[in-house]
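fyi for ur records
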Amino acid sequence: MPKADARRLLDRLEKIALKPNALHASFQALAGDKGVFRVRQGDWRAVFSIEDGNVIVDRIAHRREVYR
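which gave:
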């Protein structure tokens, strides 16, 4: 993962962690998995859940591999 994309993705996750119940750019619930979300940064995706106000990152991968 390029460093620039990694930094931007981390920044997005930190913003979500500060206000987990607010709407954020590129933040979307995954179909079929209740309470599981994804955030996009370029070709990279982070799949995570929010538990008790904490962001729990499940996986970070390229868009063609993250949902497998």
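The chain has one domain: 3-62. thats all i got for now
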